């Protein structure tokens, strides 16, 4: 009878894996520590028997307990019953001996749904192995990045190995979502490695659930997939990938083959897996036009995937936690993004504990079920039926802006956030989430600034200068922590807090110079109002830096609070303490010091000193083209960007 092998990485002391890591070239300090994989991860692959199938229209095989971890179905290894297997549309479950049969489709990826308490193998880069591509003649044409090589006729069997796992059985799970790594070259890949990805390499709380890359993993150049795999090989859990619009083969003439290279190198474009009491679903939300010159696409799920989703969910209890992860979010606080959003909501209507997760917009948003917005209603969604989280971005605002003390681009996003990682936390019936900013402690959740009439005038002048390609003299410096006495007396001068953990039911309080707390106003409460957009709804901290460097500002945010600063403050420096309480009762505190000056001349003088002290400089601005920064190529996205 087969016996489970001792996994070297699970051994005590200096294991064989750790010894090999010491001899390998070092990518970073974090990655050297992370090479010793969790004990339950094992390297392996799907087993394909290339002998001729008895029936070319039927694919069969077995899901089995790979006791000796050799990726082969040995005679004494048993099958695993009740595992879902799919050809991309149909979903069947393995019988009592782990066997399955599926109808063959001409162009399909066959995959299994990992059950809780089991773990599929990973490859040498820690990417999960749970699928098989069937494309007899291979990708049509000569794809620049390879596509899928001819697979030949239907194989005799495709067998899927797994091993038992305590980590995936636990109801307590931390699940990492890494959206939009989107490196356009090796320099930017290095920024990702030394930023948010390095943070993950130092963590060990996600071993069972692993890391889900949420699309736009690279920036069109699919030759960078190898570098992407390399930086994520340091993860302390399995890695899975969703596709985005920048992960496509743009030399494909149709959507059916636009993800052939992705499927070859990463796996299915839609699939599911279970950890603990949570069912994860990944969908492809990009429909490519096939136009190689324009590269246009729609944000759309499509009928086939919706049919598959309905079939997939038949095996899931209606009370279960379900996560629907797509590159393009179903909605943002500005608009409905996905064309067939209403159809998706119909499919998941009977699953109240479903949350949808997206990336794509390089914003960080947490929109809770029950919210209403005028722009959604215009597209037929009167009330948000399921919570939508937009997961921020590993790249932030496409690696733009000046370089910080760590040599990484500030990359402040257009909605007043920073590069980072989303983590979904599950514990039985409870779900929560946290967004952790690159290279920062978990309690770094608020960005503070002063939004005054003088600052807004400066912002518009600087935006005009940016729009003219920085022709002429840059407007005089303005710090978001300096305000004139006249501006205070004029009113409409607010202390703002970009509260990253904030939702519409969060609470933010502000205290000036130690006096009683004032309850701050949420600028986008989700009560049926239309979009609030303009300099008065902007986060001055991140907007100021972006105006001085990249020029990428959005003038709106789903997580901005503000309170009017007392108009009778004396000249000099003042302090304010801000307390943010998120929907889970977690409290965060930050303090800001700001200066009241006599007039604009004094404001300019103090601002120059303050900015020099802060170290913000446009001299170290990273250079990217406008198209790369925007990154949104659909008609809908361009329209939203111009609103």
TrEMBL record:
Residues 623-643 have a biased composition (Basic and acidic residues). InterPro entries: Calcineurin-like_PHP, Ig-like_fold, Metallo-depent_PP-like, Metallophos_C, Metallophos_N, STPP_CPPED1. Residues 75-134 form the Calcineurin-like phosphoesterase N-terminal domain. Residues 606-643 are annotated as: Disordered. Residues 211-363 form the Calcineurin-like phosphoesterase domain. Keywords: Signal. Residues 1-29 form the signal peptide. One of its GO terms (molecular function) is hydrolase activity. Residues 390-588 form the Calcineurin-like phosphoesterase C-terminal domain. The keyword Signal applies. Pfam families: Metallophos, MetallophosC, MetallophosN. SUPFAM superfamilies: Hypothetical protein PA1324 (SSF117074), Metallo-dependent phosphatases (SSF56300). This is Calcineurin-like phosphoesterase.
């Amino acid at each position: 009878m087969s016996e489970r092998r001792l996994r070297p990485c699970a051994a005590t002391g200096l294991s064989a894996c750790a010894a090999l890591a010491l001899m390998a070239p070092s990518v970073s300090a974090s990655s050297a520590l992370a090479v010793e994989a969790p004990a339950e991860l094992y390297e392996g692959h799907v087993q394909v028997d290339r002998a001729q199938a008895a029936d070319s229209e039927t694919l069969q095989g077995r899901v089995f307990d790979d006791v000796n971890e050799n990726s082969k179905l040995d005679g004494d290894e048993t099958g695993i019953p009740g595992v879902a297997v799919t050809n991309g549309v149909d979903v069947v479950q393995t019988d009592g001996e782990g066997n399955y049969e599926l109808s063959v489709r001409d162009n399909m990826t066959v995959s299994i749904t990992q059950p809780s308490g089991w773990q599929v193998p990973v490859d040498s880069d820690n990417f999960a192995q749970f699928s098989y591509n069937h494309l007899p003649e291979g990708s049509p044409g000569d794809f620049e990045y390879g596509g899928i090589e001819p697979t030949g006729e239907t194989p005799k069997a495709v067998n899927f190995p797994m091993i038992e796992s305590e980590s995936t059985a636990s109801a307590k799970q931390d699940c990492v979502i890494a959206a939009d790594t989107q490196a356009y070259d090796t320099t930017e890949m290095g920024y990702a490695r030394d930023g948010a990805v390095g943070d993950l390499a130092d963590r060990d709380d996600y071993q069972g659930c692993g890391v889900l890359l949420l699309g736009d993993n690279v920036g069109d150049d699919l030759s960078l997939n190898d570098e992407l795999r390399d930086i994520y090989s340091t993860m302390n859990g399995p890695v899975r990938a969703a596709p985005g619009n920048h992960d496509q083969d743009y030399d494909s003439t149709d959507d059916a083959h636009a993800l052939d290279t992705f499927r070859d190198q990463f796996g299915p474009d839609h699939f599911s897996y279970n950890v603990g009491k949570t069912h994860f679903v990944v969908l492809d939300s990009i429909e490519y036009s096939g136009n190689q010159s324009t590269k246009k696409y729609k944000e759309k799920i499509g009928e086939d995937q919706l049919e598959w989703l309905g079939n997939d969910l038949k095996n899931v209890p209606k009370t279960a936690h379900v996560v629907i992860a797509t590159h393009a979010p179903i909605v943002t606080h500005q608009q409905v993004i996905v064309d067939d959003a209403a159809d998706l909501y119909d499919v998941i209507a009977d699953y109240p504990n479903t949350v949808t997760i997206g990336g794509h917009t390089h914003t960080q948003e947490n929109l809770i079920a029950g919210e209403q917005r005028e722009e959604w209603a215009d597209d037929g969604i009167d009330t948000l039926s399921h919570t939508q989280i937009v997961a921020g971005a590993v790249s932030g605002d496409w690696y733009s802006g000046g370089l910080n003390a760590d040599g990484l681009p500030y990359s402040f996003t257009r909605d007043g956030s920073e590069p980072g990682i989303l983590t979904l936390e599950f514990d039985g019936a409870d779900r929560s989430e946290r967004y952790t900013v690159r290279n920062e402690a978990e309690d770094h959740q608020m960005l503070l600034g002063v939004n005054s009439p003088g600052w807004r005038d400066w912002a518009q002048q600087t935006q005009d200068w940016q729009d003219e390609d920085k022709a002429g003299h840059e407007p005089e410096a303005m710090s978001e922590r300096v305000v004139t006495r006249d501006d205070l007396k004029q009113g409409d001068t607010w202390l703002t807090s970009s509260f990253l953990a904030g939702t519409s039911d969060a609470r933010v309080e502000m205290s000036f110079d130690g006096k009683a707390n004032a309850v701050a106003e949420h600028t986008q409460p989700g009560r049926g109002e239309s979009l609030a957009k303009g300099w008065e709804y902007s986060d001055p901290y991140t907007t100021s830096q972006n105006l001085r460097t990249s020029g990428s500002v959005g003038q709106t945010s789903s997580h901005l609070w503000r309170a009017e600063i007392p108009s009778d403050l004396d000249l000099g420096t003042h302090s304010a303490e801000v307390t943010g309480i998120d929907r889970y009762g977690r409290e965060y505190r930050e303090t800001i010091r700001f200066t009241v000056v006599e007039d604009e001349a004094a404001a300019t003088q103090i601002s120059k000193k303050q900015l020099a002290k802060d170290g913000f400089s446009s001299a170290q601005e990273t250079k990217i083209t406008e198209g790369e920064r925007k990154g949104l190529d659909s008609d809908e996205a361009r329209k939203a960007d111009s609103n």
